[in-house]
Amino acid sequence: MRKTLLRSAIPLALLMSAGTVGIVASSGPSAASATRHPQHVITIPESDKFTPYQMTIHAGDSVTWVNTDTDDHTVVSDDGFNSAGHRGIDQLIPGTDANHGTPGTLTLRFRHAGTFVYYCRFHAHLDTDSQPVAPGPDGGIQDSNGNFGTPMSGVITVVASHDDD
Ligand SMILES: [Cu+2]
To answer: Does residue 114 fall inside a structural domain?
Structure first.
């Protein structure tokens, strides 16, 4: 129906039609691949936490941790909960002090569905500094000093690939 209308219209409509086709042809493949395997970012701000704390991605996607803190941090797998690959990972992500002033990064690709639970082994215990608030009615867990919060940790939920949708 639409093609018939454009063909029967004036030359300007033909130009618009050709332009539309050209845009689809040139941007189609790259847009499709970017959609198929997006790269997600988890930032470590200048405090002991991963932001966002929770993220849902598709199998095949990559996640890059960017440590903008001055201190070093780590991504460590808790294998008891980890079903999305990268079991046993214990990866240092240098802070800006140890990385010539630029944020250290770590990129992992998740190839199959599951759950990736991780923490920072340097900051796996509660302290008085800023901590992420865990989901739940009480806002997290309480340590022996009465602090509420969650040790520096995060969870990535990997759902089926876009390709399987
Ligand atoms: Cu840390």
So the answer is: yes
Cβ atoms 50, 153 nearer than 8 A:
yes
Placement of tokens 């990972």 in the chain: 89
Q: Can you give the pLDDT at residue 101?
A: 97
Query: From the CA of 44, how far away is ligand 1's center (Å)?
Result: 9
Q: Is residue 98 part of a domain?
A: yes
- Residue 73 CA, ligand 1 centroid: distance in Å: 4
CATH code, domain with 60: 2.60.40.420
Q: Quote the ligand 1 centre to 89 CA distance (angstroms).
A: 15
Task: Record the tokens describing residue 164, joined without a space.
Answer: 């399987």
Q: What is the pLDDT of residue 20?
A: 39
The number of folded domains in the chain is: 1
Domain that holds residue 35: 12-164
| Positive/negative CA dihedral, 121, 126, 132, 136 | positive
In this prediction, what percent of the chain has a pLDDT beyond 90? 44
48/71 Cα distance (integer angstroms): 9
pLDDT tens-digit map of 51-84 = 998 999 999 999 999 999 999 999 999 788 889 9
**Is residue 2, in this structure, part of any structural domain at all?**
no
All residues with CB under 5 Å from ion ligand 1: 73, 120, 122-123, 152
Asked if residue 84 is part of any domain, the answer here is yes
